[in-house]
Design goal:
The protein has 177 residues and is α+β, with helices and mostly antiparallel strands. It has a single domain, classed as Pnp Oxidase, Chain A (Roll), CATH 2.30.110.10. The chain contains three helices and ten strands; from the N terminus they run αββββαβαβββββ. A seven-stranded antiparallel sheet has the order 2-1-5-9-10-4-3. Strands 6-7-8 form a three-stranded antiparallel sheet, with no helix packed on it. The termini are close together. The structure holds flavin mononucleotide. The site of flavin mononucleotide has 20 residues, from strand 2, strand 4 and helix 2.
């Protein structure tokens, strides 16, 4: 949490300096940046997300870590599914747009001003994604201020496999640390 030093601290190191260094090192870990789609009870959301990785080959399992206080947490937990949309390099602005709950519209078929469609599990997927994966939640693991949702890939699509992907270093954003 902002402003709060998180231990443990190695002996002999200044907690403030150590906290800043640890943050910088954590931020330097190579990271992708995605939109995570979720839906439950008529509410849908897309959320800027980077704590995601494949965690099993057989079955095909993806883990996404979601803040406990996020709307997306409630929707993934209750809806039991999520999508992970890979973004185009030129779509940096989308990463900024989806750091707060997305409003429906302004037109039908749109969410937060972008065109979406419903995936097989009912979660929104970004139409202009490079590619997207859709997962059904198989495991939930509380991990501090986040929950790790592990989902099995049940569908995917790659509308533009040639497009360059947006990476964290293409933005001025970071998360975690
Ligand atoms: C670059 C970046 C990456 C983010 N990655 C995550 C993430 O992996 N997990 C997460 O819970 N929130 C992440 N967030 C925060 C969410 O985008 C969002 O601000 C917050 O969780 C509220 O989401 P909500 O719309 O579901 O309420 C990230 C934010 C930024 C700017």
């Amino acid at each position: 949490m902002a402003g709060q030093l998180v231990g443990p601290f190695p002996k002999g190191k200044d907690p403030d300096d150590y906290d800043r260094l640890r943050r910088r090192v954590l931020w330097r870990m190579p990271a992708g940046i995605y939109l995570l789609g979720s839906a439950f009870g008529g509410r849908r959301n897309l959320m800027t997300h980077n704590l995601a990785m494949q965690v099993s080959v057989q079955p095909k399992l993806l883990a996404v870590s979601v803040r406990n206080d996020a709307l997306s947490h409630e929707l993934v937990d209750k809806g039991g599914a999520f999508s992970l949309c890979l973004l185009r390099r030129e779509d940096r602005a989308l990463a900024r747009t989806f750091t707060k709950p997305a409003e429906e519209g302004p037109e039908p078929g749109m969410l937060g001003g972008v065109e979406v469609r419903d995936g097989a599990t009912g979660v929104p997927v970004l139409c202009r994604s490079v590619a997207w994966l859709e997962c059904e939640v198989r495991h939930r693991l509380p991990v501090g201020d986040h929950t790790l949702f592990v989902g099995e890939v049940v569908d995917c699509s790659a509308p533009d496999e040639e497009a360059l992907l947006l990476r964290m270093e293409d933005t001025r954003l970071n998360y975690g640390g």
